[in-house]
Amino acid sequence: MLDGAWRVRIRIVLLAAALTVAGCVHLPDAADMPSGTDRTSGGITPATPLTEVVRKRQVHPLDPAAATPLLDQAMVELAKTDEHGRFRGITYDLTKDNVLGSQWIVQTPDAWGRPGASVGFFPLDCHGACNPDFRLPLCHRDADCPEPGAVCGRLEAAAGQRLCLGHSDAVMDRFYRTAVEATQAVDVTLLQPVPDYRFLAALRNAVTTLARSGRAVTMRFLVGQYPPDATDAAALVAQLVRDARAVPNANITVYAAAMRSCTGSISCESLSWNHAKILAVDGRTALVGGHNMYTQDYLLDAPIHDLSMIVQGGAARDAHRFADRLWEYVCDHDRDPLAPVSVAMYRSGAAHLTGGCLEKMPLPARSDAGDGVPILASARLASGMTREFANQDDLARDLIFGAARQDILVAQQDVAFLQPGQPAPIYPEPTLATWVDMMLAGRGDVYVVLSSAGSHAPSGGDYSNGVKLADVAAKLLAVAQARSGLARAQAVDLLCAHLHLAPYRFGPDETWPGGKPIGNHSKFWMVDDRYFYIGSDNLYPVDLQEFGYIVDDPAAAAELLHVYWDKLWRWSRVAAISGSDAPACALRSML
Fold first, then answer.
1. What torsion do the CA atoms of 238, 242, 246, 249 make, to the nearest 10 degrees?
2. Beta 161-165 vs 151-155: how paired, if at all?
3. Predicted model pTM
4. Cα–Cα distances in Å, from 531 out to 396, 537, 556?
5. Residue 40's pLDDT is what?
6. Are the C-beta atoms of 504 and 452 separated by less than 8 Å?
7. Taking a C-beta distance cutoff of 8 angstroms, is the pair 533, 396 a contact?
8. What is the predicted pLDDT for the residue at 91?
9. At what angle do helices 429-440 and 469-484 cross, to 10 degrees?
C-alpha cells in the first residue's frame, strides 16, 4: 500500500488523467514563488533523480573498513545534499543516547509457526456482555473466550478491564502506555482513514487519562489525506475528547490537522501527503514504524503483518521535529481556501472546538545525553513542502546498502509499484543497483520477502501492488546484465545462487483460512546483521512524506533476527522462487 495503494490507485489514475488533459504543468521560478517559500534550490530539487543528486553533490560511498562508524559517515554524505543545513534534525539526524527497552519490538500478529486457523480474533459485532467502545467480550477467565488462541486479559487501554483478546488486540496497550506517559507533549502522525473502533477507543482513553492527570499536556494529531478524499479534523478532535470534556480541572490542548502537500498543482508536479506513522512523547519516547491504526486490517481475520519499534532518547526528539515541519506546512496553509488542509483545536474548559494551529511543539529540556544506541533518524519531505531536495531518507538507505559486505535482508510489501494503465512497474533503480553490485562483487547474498500476490485486509485494503515475484526476479536479472555485461546464463547462475526471493509466510499454511493471501506491510531491512531500518518508507518509489530509524546496534539486530527475521525466513523460504533455499529457481525458465 501507500498504505494501501488500494485506497489511492484509482484516485491517482483519475488525477493523472486530469493533469494530462490540462497539459504540461510548469513549476514557477523562484521569483514567482509566494513569500516564505524556499527560493534557493542549490541546484537540486525534490524532483531531481537520486543519481543526479549523488553526482552533483559528490556524495561518496561509505567505507565499512574505516574507523569512523557508518552512520557518522552517512551524516557527512547526507549533509552534502543539504547546502544550507535547513533539514538537519528534520530529515536526517544522528543521536547516540538512545535506549531500546525490553519490549522495543512491536510486531503483529506475533503468530510464528502457527496454522492460520489457530490465530483467533473477535469480530466487531460483539454479542452479549461487551465493552461498547472496544467491541470485545467481557470475561473472567480464558474459558470465557472461545476463539482459538484467545485469552482473557486486562487491557490497560480499557481502564484495566478484563476482556477477551484476539491475536493482536494487546498491541493497543503499546500505543496507550506510550501516550499516557506524557508530561507535556504528544505528537501523532498517521495516514487516513483516522484511527477506528478499537484503536480509536485506545487513543480516546489515553486523552482522557491525560486529562485526569491534571498535567498541562499538548497533543497534535496530523493525518495525511489522499485525493480526492478528505479527513474532518474537527470530527477527529471531537471523537478524541469525547470523555475528556467532562473531566474537571483538566489541562489539555488537542490539535488535529489533515494535510496534503501536492496534488499536481502549478507549484509541484507530484502527489504527496504524510505517510509517516509516529507516536512521540515529550521528546523522550517514540513509537515509529509501519503500523497504521486500522482495526479491520490488523485486529480481525487474515490480519496484515507489520513491524514497529519503541525508542527512548534523542531519536524521539527527531520525530517531534519532523512533525513540526509537517505542521509548519499546515499552519502556513490553514487559511488558504484552495489548500487541501483542515485544522481544529480543543482546550480544556472550552464549550466548543475552534480553529487553531501549533507550528512547533514545546518540549521539556533535554537531559544530558549519555552513551547509548546510535540511531539515524531518516526522513523525506517529498513534494510541495520545499523547493529544495529534502528526501535524505532515499539516499541514506542506499548508502547503507552500498556498504554491505555480508548480507542484505528485506521484508516489504513490494519493491515495485504498478499504477493501473501504466505500461510497466516502476522500481527503486538505485537500490536495486546496490543489491546487484553486492552480488556481482561476491560479497554476499540478498534475501527479499514480499507480500503474497493479491493480499488484502478484511476492510478491502489491498496489500499487494500486483507485481509478481517472477517479474521482480526478471527485473533484477536485467539489472545484473546491464551492470556487468554477463551473458544471460551467467547472470541467471549468479541470482539463482545469491538472490533469495520469497512470498510472505508465518507458518505452515500458504494462505489464511478461506484461501486469503498473506499480506505484509513491514518496512524492514537489515545489512550485515548489524544495521537495520524500521519506519514508514516503502522501497517502491512513491513521493510521500516518510519517517523511520536506521539503527546501529549488533545486540538489537541479533534480537530482531531472533524474534522476527529468522522466523520469517524459516517459513517463507519453502516458497522461495530463487536462491539456494528455493525448491527450483524460476529464473532458469527465463533462459
1. -70
2. antiparallel
3. 0.93
4. 12, 16, 9
5. 47
6. yes
7. no
8. 98
9. 70
Do 482 and 552 form a contact (C-beta atoms < 8 A)?
no
Cell of 463: 496489500
As given in the structure block, the three cell numbers for residue 30 are 523562484
Residues 6+ apart with CB under 8 A from 412: 448, 449, 450, 451, 520, 522, 523, 524, 525, 538, 539, 540
Cβ atoms of residues 425 and 467 within 8 Å? yes
Which residue carries 554476499 as its cell? Answer: 444
Q: How far, CA to CA in Å, does 77 sit from each of 64, 382, 409, 425?
A: 14, 19, 23, 30
One-character DSSP codes across 378-402? EEE--SSS-SS---HHHHHHHHHHH
Which cell is 97 given? 543516547
172: nearest Cα among 212, 142, 131: 131
479 close to 434: Cβ distance less than 8 angstroms: no
In sequence order, what are the residues at sequence separation of 6 or more whose Cβ sits closer than 8 angstroms to the Cβ of residue 529? 406, 407, 554, 557, 558, 561
Over residues 309-344, the pLDDT tens digits come to: 999 999 999 999 999 999 999 999 887 776 788 899
Within the chain, how many helices (H) and strands (E) appear? Answer: 14, 22
User: What's the CA gap between 180 and 583, in Å, rounded?
Assistant: 49
For residue 211, give the 3-state DSSP assignment: helix
Cα dihedral 89/90/92/94 (nearest 10) = 30
Q: What are phi and psi of 2, to 5 degrees?
A: -95, 35
The packing angle between helices 197-213 and 233-240, to 10°, is: 60
DSSP, collapsed to helix, strand or coil, labels residue 185 as strand
- Give Cβ neighbours of residue 22 (< 8 Å, ≥ 6 apart): none
User: Does position 7 have pLDDT exceeding 50, yes or no?
Assistant: no
Helices (H), 153-196: 171-180
CATH 3.30.870.10 fits 374-590, yes or no: yes
Q: Where in the chain is the domain with CATH 3.30.870.10?
A: 374-590
Give the number of other CB atoms < 10 A from CB of residue 10.
12
